[in-house]
Amino acid sequence: MKLPAFAATALAVTALLAIPTAASGAPSARAAGAPAGGARAVPKVNMEATVKAAQIDPRRADDTLTPGAKASVLLVERALRDRNLLDARWVDGYFGTSTIAAYAKYQRSLGYTGLDANGLPGKTSLTKLGTGRFKVTRAIGPGERVSTRGVVLNTRTRDMLAEAERLLDRRLVLEQGSYNPGGDPTSAGTHDGGGAVDISVRGMNAAARTAVARELRRVGFAAWVRSPAQGDWPWHVHAVAISDTDLSSPAQHQVGDYYLGLNGLANRGPDDGPKVTIRTWEEYRRR
């Protein structure tokens, strides 16, 4: 049956109105996967990955990037560049010595000194750097300083030690703690900041000493059995909490060397400790 002219026109208009907007070649923001209202998605900086790169990359002999850190490091480097703290040629996803120096300069610009300006991104400074640029995820921190067993530690290190003791089923005797600048000249500054401990192995045989180092490594320390043959010290276990943002520069270097299979000493010899999967404290807790 042939429709009247006015009815045919009405049907044509209705059909046109029913065609989805996306068919015009201009999809809506929601259809394209953008946030509601067309707002730009805020990029994210994974703090755990960034801090890990800041410990490892300065110790590398090449420009290999730390796995999983490139995108976050690039965001940090671009922010430092835009503050005229980092030359554009170093915006490469590699948190090397130039980026460490730039970040330390940024920390000082915020009024930080000492350990708070050590070049390792801390939660507060990283959040400020990201204002209007990126959001910080996987935030980490050393916690408060506490006195325990005659030494000073931060709560993160204390909790790590407690877990290692649980795994060992023995209480450890601490010979030296953290935040002890100049306390032991043979330590070469590793105990000046947080995260560093020396553990007595008096009365332990070789197997027991190795077991202590192994469980410390398992919960997130870079740990080695130290012998008198290596330096002017007695037998002990030296341990540095990986990714403690209060680490002194020498302790940062030891962590980086640990990841690279080295012994944490000045000679940068091969790692002589027990082999375990390297994890941070946070990674250990998520396993």
Structure description:
- By secondary structure, the protein is α+β, with helices and mostly antiparallel strands.
- Helices cover 36% and strands 12% of the residues.
- The chain contains 9 helices and 8 strands.
- α2 crosses α8 (249-259) and α6 (155-168) packs across α7.
- The protein is elongated.
- Residues 1-34 have low confidence and may be disordered.
Features:
287 residues; alpha+beta; four-stranded antiparallel beta sheet; two-stranded parallel sheet; 9 helices; disordered N terminus
Topology of this structure?
Blueprint: H1 5-18, E1 44-46, H2 47-56, H3 70-82, H4 97-109, H5 123-129, E2 135-137, E3 145-148, E4 151-154, H6 155-168, E5 174-176, E6 196-200, H7 206-219, E7 221-226, E8 236-241, H8 249-259, H9 281-286
Parallel strand pairs: 1-2
Antiparallel strand pairs: 3-4, 5-6, 6-8, 7-8
Give me a quick take on this structure.
By secondary structure, the chain is of the alpha+beta class. Helix content is 36%, strand content 12%.
Mean pLDDT: 89
For the sheet with most strands, the description reads: 4 strands, antiparallel
Binned strand content:
5-15%
Low-confidence region ranges: 1-34
Order of adjacent strands in the largest pleated sheet: 5-6-8-7
Number of helices: 9
Helix/strand order: HEHHHHEEEHEEHEEHH
Gyration radius (Cα, Å) is 27 Å
What structural class results from the helix and strand content?
Answer: alpha+beta
- The total beta strand count reads 8
